[in-house]
Structures are given as C-alpha cells and as structure tokens.
Design brief:
With 303 residues, the protein is α+β, with helices and mostly antiparallel strands. It contains five helices and 22 strands. It starts with a helix and ends with a helix.
C-alpha cells in the first residue's frame, strides 16, 4: 500500500472513531476506499444571511472535504454545502489558513472548521466575506456563538476509543472529578467522556448519558437541562429550547421555538413568522397560510 493510501486509511480510521453518529460532528457520506471525499454534518451554532438581507442563527451545517491527488503534501479542498455567514468562508471555499502542514491530521482540520463555524475562530484582516468581517467587529460581544470545546472530541476519542461493535472502551479515571476505580464502574457519556456514577445523568429528552463536562442547554419553556443534541437556540427569538418545544419551518426549514411557529390553516404544516401571512379563506374568515400554499393558490388562479 502506498504512503498516500496509508494516510487516507489512517485519516478514515480516526474520523470514524472520533465523529460518530452521536457526535455533534458526523460523517454523512464518503467516496472512495479509503475515502478521498467526505460530506460532514456539523451540529454547531453559527450564522447565516437571510434572503431579505438580515441575519439569523443556524444550528446545522454541511461541508465537503476533498483530498486531492496531492494530499497530504497539499491542503484538502473544503467547501460549504449549506449557507453560512462567516468572514473566512465563501460559497466555493473555506479558508483553512495560509500554511498547511502535511503532518496535521484530517481530524484536527475537521475540528478547526467547527471552531470557525461557531465564531471561536475568525480573521478579519484578510476576509473572504467583507460583510461578515464587519458584522463580527460590530457584534464582538456576542461571540463566540457556540462555546463547545470541539478539540476535546479528539483527546476524548483517543482516550476511550471504540470496539468493533461500536461500544466505548472506558478507562479507570473519571474525566470529570478524577475519581479512579475499576473500568466496570465507569460509563461513557454520549460525547465519550469517561464518568463515574456521581458525574453522569440521563438527558430527559433522548435518554442519552451526559456528564458534567458536557454542554447542557436549559429550555426556556420547560426549564429542563438537556444535552446539546436535544437543545438549541431558536433562530428567530434566540431563546434556548429543547427539541420537544421546538420545530422547523416547513418553508425555510429553520429551527424555531413553538412560539415562533404558526400552523398553516391550509396544509396544517408549521411555518415561521417570516413565511406565513394572514389571508382570507374560502369561508370568508381570515387565517394564516404559509407562503407555499399562497403560491400554489396564485398559480392555480393564473392557470
């Protein structure tokens, strides 16, 4: 096996170990054996620009990483597959830095992109998006948008690892309080932190294990503390909510709390306040209809 193929296989083995289906960074698709192209999903709080020129929180991003024939001597090619608003990211490219070192692992690069999306990392001196750089300067007190320590995913993954059946291999030391004990007395939370029984709890929504090192979100509606997978900020009012008190707009698919969603009287789907309008129904009453149903009605009348 060539040096390049060995490097590709090592990259894939590490990414598969660190970024599982339960992680906030997930492998969605790969191409090649070993993979030369990755499609990754980031459950990270970042920013996007709306069609009307305004800005809103976004909690899910997808990127594509291509490892060219010159990799690892040359840097991977990275591009967004979903909208994003960031000083160092353009639709065609993600600026991963001026100096690429062949010794840097692909996993480290994946984490660096998470730090960029969350505005933990940005460079306003040589931006790809000047408008985003100006926004970052004017809203510096709001940044970062997500305080998760994404680099911890790497050290935790290396410390625990996974067996072939997917189960976690835990050590004898709690990563939270430092208590030592037999590995059988320790558990691995969904973020692969090793925890003793005093430092672990179940998320009230998904039932997954979380520990004191995990990021928790307190829902503004039910006041419960839930894991980061089950809680996020509403893209409209920016209140923290759990997944049981939130949904997605049927038109723009943006995440919203229940207070910022309205049921369309025509199709019954929920839509955000930006994509519903009060119209006169056939019954003569006024009620809300989503933009999709309004456009369908206009097209039917025109036809």
């Amino acid at each position: 096996m060539s040096v390049r193929l060995r490097r590709l296989k090592a990259d894939y083995d590490k990414l598969s170990s660190f970024f599982t289906k339960d992680s906030r960074i997930r492998i969605k698709k790969t191409l090649g054996n070993p993979p030369e192209k990755y499609q990754l999903e980031y459950l990270v709080t970042g920013m996007e620009k709306r069609l009307d020129g305004g800005f809103q929180i976004r909690n899910q991003f997808q990127i594509e990483i291509t490892l060219t024939g010159s990799y690892p001597r040359m840097a991977p090619q990275c591009r967004m597959l979903t909208p994003v608003f960031h000083p160092n990211i353009a639709p065609h490219a993600i600026c991963i830095g001026d100096h690429w070192a062949a010794g840097e692992s692909l996993a480290n690069l994946v984490v660096r992109i998470a730090e960029m999306l969350s505005f933990q990392s940005y460079n306003i001196k040589s931006p790809l998006n000047g408008e985003a750089a100006k926004w970052a300067v004017e809203n510096k007190d709001r940044l970062p948008l997500d305080t998760t320590d994404f680099s911890a995913l790497l050290s935790v993954g290396e410390a625990t690892g996974r067996r072939e059946d997917g189960s976690a291999v835990v050590g004898d030391t709690c990563a939270n309080c430092g208590k030592r004990g037999d590995p059988s007395e320790m558990q691995a939370c969904t973020n692969l932190h090793v925890a003793c029984e005093n430092c672990v709890m179940s998320c009230p929504v998904c039932g997954g294990l979380t520990c004191l090192k995990c990021d928790l979100v307190t829902c503004s509606t039910c006041k419960r503390s839930v894991c980061a997978k089950c809680g996020y900020r509403c893209a409209a009012c920016q209140q923290a909510v759990c997944s049981e008190h939130a949904g997605h707009c049927a038109v723009c698919e943006a995440g919203r709390c229940h207070d910022c969603l309205v049921a369309c009287r025509v199709c019954g789907a929920s839509a955000c306040l930006d994509h519903v309008k009060k119209v006169r129904m056939k019954s003569g009453e006024e009620d809300f209809a989503c933009h999709g149903c309004i456009e369908k009605a206009r097209a039917a009348r025109a036809g």
